[in-house]
Amino acid sequence: xxxxxxxxxxxxxxxxxxxxxxxxxxxxxxxxxxxxxxxxxxxxxxxxxxxxxxxxxxxxxxxxxxxxxxxxxxxxxxxxxxxxxxxxxxxxxxxxxxxxxxxxxxxxxxxxxxxxxxxxxxxxxxxxxxxxxxxxxxxxxxxxxxxxxxxxxxxxxxxxxxxxxxxxxxxxxxxxxxxxxxxxxxxxxxxxxxxxxxxxxxxxxxxxxxx
Length: 211
Ligand SMILES: CC(C)(COP(=O)(O)OP(=O)(O)OC[C@H]1O[C@@H](n2cnc3c(N)ncnc32)[C@H](O)[C@@H]1OP(=O)(O)O)[C@@H](O)C(=O)NCCC(=O)NCCS
What we know:
The protein has one domain: Aminopeptidase. It is globular, with a radius of gyration of 17 Å. The protein is 39% helix and 29% strand. It is an alpha+beta fold. Helix 1 packs across helix 3. The protein has an eight-stranded mixed β-sheet with strand order 1-2-3-4-5-6-8-7, with helices on both faces. It binds coenzyme A (COA). Coenzyme A (COA) binds next to strand 5, helix 4 and helix 5.
Protein backbone atom coordinates (compact mmCIF):
# COMPACT_ATOMS: atom_id res chain seq x y z
CA UNK A 1 0.00 0.00 0.00
CA UNK A 2 1.33 3.46 -0.87
CA UNK A 3 0.18 6.40 1.25
CA UNK A 4 0.47 9.97 -0.11
CA UNK A 5 1.15 12.76 2.44
CA UNK A 6 1.57 11.62 6.03
CA UNK A 7 1.61 13.40 9.39
CA UNK A 8 2.42 11.40 12.52
CA UNK A 9 1.96 12.89 15.99
CA UNK A 10 3.61 11.69 19.21
CA UNK A 11 3.76 13.07 22.75
CA UNK A 12 6.52 15.64 22.01
CA UNK A 13 6.86 15.56 18.23
CA UNK A 14 5.17 16.14 14.90
CA UNK A 15 6.59 14.07 12.05
CA UNK A 16 5.66 15.71 8.80
CA UNK A 17 6.68 16.32 5.19
CA UNK A 18 9.58 18.68 4.48
CA UNK A 19 8.94 22.37 3.65
CA UNK A 20 11.21 24.99 2.12
CA UNK A 21 10.78 26.99 5.33
CA UNK A 22 12.73 24.21 7.13
CA UNK A 23 15.96 25.41 5.47
CA UNK A 24 17.42 27.21 8.52
CA UNK A 25 16.64 24.43 11.00
CA UNK A 26 18.14 21.80 8.69
CA UNK A 27 21.25 23.88 8.05
CA UNK A 28 21.71 24.33 11.81
CA UNK A 29 21.15 20.63 12.57
CA UNK A 30 23.08 18.91 9.82
CA UNK A 31 25.60 21.75 9.52
CA UNK A 32 27.13 20.68 12.83
CA UNK A 33 30.21 18.57 12.14
CA UNK A 34 29.40 16.19 15.03
CA UNK A 35 26.18 15.31 13.22
CA UNK A 36 27.18 15.28 9.54
CA UNK A 37 30.45 13.36 10.05
CA UNK A 38 28.31 10.25 10.66
CA UNK A 39 26.41 10.47 7.37
CA UNK A 40 28.19 9.43 4.19
CA UNK A 41 26.56 11.75 1.65
CA UNK A 42 26.58 15.05 3.55
CA UNK A 43 29.24 17.68 2.73
CA UNK A 44 30.97 19.83 5.33
CA UNK A 45 30.67 22.77 5.58
CA UNK A 46 26.94 22.35 4.98
CA UNK A 47 25.37 25.58 3.76
CA UNK A 48 21.83 26.95 3.30
CA UNK A 49 22.06 26.25 -0.43
CA UNK A 50 22.78 22.58 0.31
CA UNK A 51 19.68 22.38 2.51
CA UNK A 52 17.55 24.14 -0.15
CA UNK A 53 18.80 21.82 -2.89
CA UNK A 54 18.02 18.76 -0.77
CA UNK A 55 14.60 20.10 0.21
CA UNK A 56 13.64 20.81 -3.41
CA UNK A 57 14.62 17.26 -4.34
CA UNK A 58 12.70 15.54 -1.53
CA UNK A 59 9.62 17.79 -1.86
CA UNK A 60 9.47 16.87 -5.57
CA UNK A 61 9.82 13.16 -4.73
CA UNK A 62 7.11 13.41 -2.06
CA UNK A 63 4.59 14.44 -4.73
CA UNK A 64 5.18 11.32 -6.84
CA UNK A 65 2.25 8.90 -7.07
CA UNK A 66 4.38 5.82 -6.45
CA UNK A 67 6.52 6.53 -3.39
CA UNK A 68 9.98 5.04 -3.04
CA UNK A 69 10.67 7.09 0.06
CA UNK A 70 9.12 9.08 2.90
CA UNK A 71 11.09 11.87 4.53
CA UNK A 72 9.78 12.92 7.95
CA UNK A 73 10.93 16.19 9.44
CA UNK A 74 11.02 15.86 13.24
CA UNK A 75 9.35 18.97 14.64
CA UNK A 76 9.51 19.62 18.37
CA UNK A 77 5.98 20.68 19.39
CA UNK A 78 6.97 23.01 22.21
CA UNK A 79 9.50 24.98 20.12
CA UNK A 80 7.87 24.58 16.67
CA UNK A 81 11.37 23.79 15.47
CA UNK A 82 12.68 21.04 13.22
CA UNK A 83 15.24 19.17 15.32
CA UNK A 84 15.94 16.25 13.03
CA UNK A 85 14.91 14.00 10.22
CA UNK A 86 13.99 10.34 9.79
CA UNK A 87 13.41 8.75 6.43
CA UNK A 88 12.20 5.54 4.88
CA UNK A 89 13.91 4.94 1.57
CA UNK A 90 14.44 2.22 -1.05
CA UNK A 91 10.91 1.00 -0.32
CA UNK A 92 10.69 -2.33 -2.11
CA UNK A 93 7.11 -3.43 -2.67
CA UNK A 94 8.15 -6.90 -3.87
CA UNK A 95 10.43 -7.83 -0.98
CA UNK A 96 8.43 -5.62 1.43
CA UNK A 97 11.63 -4.09 2.78
CA UNK A 98 12.88 -0.55 3.20
CA UNK A 99 15.92 1.29 4.48
CA UNK A 100 15.99 4.01 7.08
CA UNK A 101 18.31 6.82 8.17
CA UNK A 102 18.12 9.65 10.69
CA UNK A 103 19.77 12.55 12.49
CA UNK A 104 18.98 14.80 15.45
CA UNK A 105 20.33 18.32 16.09
CA UNK A 106 23.24 17.97 18.55
CA UNK A 107 21.55 20.28 21.11
CA UNK A 108 18.73 17.72 21.43
CA UNK A 109 20.74 14.49 21.67
CA UNK A 110 20.08 11.80 24.29
CA UNK A 111 16.60 13.00 25.17
CA UNK A 112 14.84 10.06 23.55
CA UNK A 113 13.72 12.03 20.48
CA UNK A 114 14.90 9.54 17.87
CA UNK A 115 13.42 6.67 19.87
CA UNK A 116 10.09 8.52 19.99
CA UNK A 117 10.23 9.28 16.26
CA UNK A 118 11.22 5.71 15.37
CA UNK A 119 8.29 4.26 17.32
CA UNK A 120 5.86 6.27 15.17
CA UNK A 121 7.66 5.78 11.84
CA UNK A 122 8.28 2.06 12.35
CA UNK A 123 4.59 1.57 13.17
CA UNK A 124 3.75 3.41 9.94
CA UNK A 125 6.21 1.29 7.93
CA UNK A 126 5.04 -2.06 9.32
CA UNK A 127 1.30 -1.38 9.68
CA UNK A 128 0.46 1.02 6.85
CA UNK A 129 3.12 0.28 4.24
CA UNK A 130 3.01 -3.43 5.20
CA UNK A 131 6.78 -3.73 5.30
CA UNK A 132 8.20 -7.06 6.46
CA UNK A 133 11.67 -5.85 7.33
CA UNK A 134 13.48 -2.55 7.88
CA UNK A 135 17.21 -2.19 7.32
CA UNK A 136 19.82 0.35 8.26
CA UNK A 137 23.57 0.84 7.99
CA UNK A 138 25.78 2.59 10.53
CA UNK A 139 29.49 3.48 10.60
CA UNK A 140 31.15 1.01 12.96
CA UNK A 141 32.65 3.88 15.00
CA UNK A 142 29.28 5.63 15.49
CA UNK A 143 28.57 4.79 19.13
CA UNK A 144 25.25 6.67 19.40
CA UNK A 145 23.68 5.21 16.28
CA UNK A 146 24.83 1.62 16.96
CA UNK A 147 23.34 1.95 20.47
CA UNK A 148 20.12 3.35 19.02
CA UNK A 149 19.58 0.48 16.57
CA UNK A 150 20.17 -2.11 19.29
CA UNK A 151 17.85 -0.31 21.69
CA UNK A 152 15.08 -0.22 19.08
CA UNK A 153 15.38 -3.95 18.43
CA UNK A 154 17.46 -4.23 15.25
CA UNK A 155 19.60 -7.34 14.86
CA UNK A 156 23.24 -6.91 13.88
CA UNK A 157 23.73 -8.69 10.55
CA UNK A 158 27.41 -8.12 9.83
CA UNK A 159 30.02 -5.56 8.93
CA UNK A 160 31.22 -4.38 5.53
CA UNK A 161 34.89 -3.58 5.88
CA UNK A 162 36.21 -0.27 4.45
CA UNK A 163 32.94 0.16 2.62
CA UNK A 164 32.03 3.85 2.54
CA UNK A 165 33.80 7.19 2.11
CA UNK A 166 32.26 10.02 4.13
CA UNK A 167 31.89 13.23 2.12
CA UNK A 168 32.44 15.41 5.18
CA UNK A 169 35.59 13.77 6.55
CA UNK A 170 36.97 12.14 3.37
CA UNK A 171 37.72 9.05 5.49
CA UNK A 172 36.84 5.43 4.74
CA UNK A 173 34.60 3.59 7.22
CA UNK A 174 33.56 0.05 8.13
CA UNK A 175 29.79 -0.17 8.02
CA UNK A 176 27.59 -2.23 10.36
CA UNK A 177 24.41 -3.66 8.85
CA UNK A 178 21.22 -4.04 10.88
CA UNK A 179 17.81 -5.55 10.18
CA UNK A 180 14.51 -5.25 12.03
CA UNK A 181 11.89 -7.90 11.31
CA UNK A 182 8.24 -7.04 11.91
CA UNK A 183 7.89 -9.85 14.45
CA UNK A 184 10.92 -8.60 16.43
CA UNK A 185 9.52 -5.05 16.36
CA UNK A 186 6.12 -6.13 17.67
CA UNK A 187 7.83 -7.96 20.54
CA UNK A 188 10.09 -4.99 21.35
CA UNK A 189 7.46 -2.22 21.06
CA UNK A 190 5.70 -2.45 24.48
CA UNK A 191 9.04 -2.48 26.35
CA UNK A 192 10.43 0.34 24.22
CA UNK A 193 7.33 2.48 24.88
CA UNK A 194 7.61 1.89 28.63
CA UNK A 195 11.37 2.60 28.52
CA UNK A 196 10.78 5.90 26.68
CA UNK A 197 8.02 6.96 29.10
CA UNK A 198 10.39 6.39 32.01
CA UNK A 199 13.16 8.34 30.26
CA UNK A 200 10.89 11.32 29.54
CA UNK A 201 9.72 11.38 33.19
CA UNK A 202 13.32 11.25 34.42
CA UNK A 203 14.32 14.08 32.05
CA UNK A 204 11.50 16.32 33.29
CA UNK A 205 12.34 15.58 36.97
CA UNK A 206 16.01 16.46 36.27
CA UNK A 207 14.91 19.67 34.53
CA UNK A 208 12.67 20.68 37.46
CA UNK A 209 15.38 20.05 40.02
CA UNK A 210 17.90 22.04 37.91
CA UNK A 211 15.59 25.12 37.93
C1 LIG B 1 22.08 8.55 16.45
C2 LIG B 1 21.17 9.70 16.90
C3 LIG B 1 20.13 9.95 15.80
C4 LIG B 1 20.47 9.29 18.21
O1 LIG B 1 19.50 10.27 18.53
P1 LIG B 1 19.03 10.60 20.02
O2 LIG B 1 17.73 11.30 19.95
O3 LIG B 1 20.12 11.26 20.76
O4 LIG B 1 18.82 9.11 20.61
P2 LIG B 1 17.93 8.66 21.87
O5 LIG B 1 18.04 9.68 22.96
O6 LIG B 1 16.56 8.30 21.41
O7 LIG B 1 18.71 7.36 22.34
C5 LIG B 1 18.57 6.13 21.66
C6 LIG B 1 19.45 5.09 22.33
O8 LIG B 1 20.82 5.28 21.99
C7 LIG B 1 21.63 5.51 23.13
N1 LIG B 1 22.57 6.59 22.84
C8 LIG B 1 22.29 7.78 22.25
N2 LIG B 1 23.41 8.51 22.15
C9 LIG B 1 24.40 7.76 22.69
C10 LIG B 1 25.79 7.98 22.86
N3 LIG B 1 26.38 9.12 22.48
N4 LIG B 1 26.53 6.99 23.42
C11 LIG B 1 25.96 5.83 23.82
N5 LIG B 1 24.63 5.57 23.67
C12 LIG B 1 23.88 6.53 23.11
C13 LIG B 1 20.66 5.94 24.21
O9 LIG B 1 21.16 5.66 25.49
C14 LIG B 1 19.40 5.16 23.85
O10 LIG B 1 19.46 3.84 24.32
P3 LIG B 1 18.74 3.46 25.69
O11 LIG B 1 17.46 4.23 25.72
O12 LIG B 1 18.56 1.98 25.57
O13 LIG B 1 19.65 3.90 26.76
C15 LIG B 1 21.99 10.99 17.19
O14 LIG B 1 23.06 10.68 18.05
C16 LIG B 1 22.55 11.66 15.94
O15 LIG B 1 21.87 12.43 15.28
N6 LIG B 1 23.83 11.40 15.62
C17 LIG B 1 24.49 12.04 14.49
C18 LIG B 1 23.93 11.59 13.17
C19 LIG B 1 23.91 10.10 13.05
O16 LIG B 1 24.78 9.41 13.57
N7 LIG B 1 22.88 9.59 12.37
C20 LIG B 1 22.76 8.16 12.15
C21 LIG B 1 23.56 7.78 10.99
S1 LIG B 1 23.51 6.02 10.77
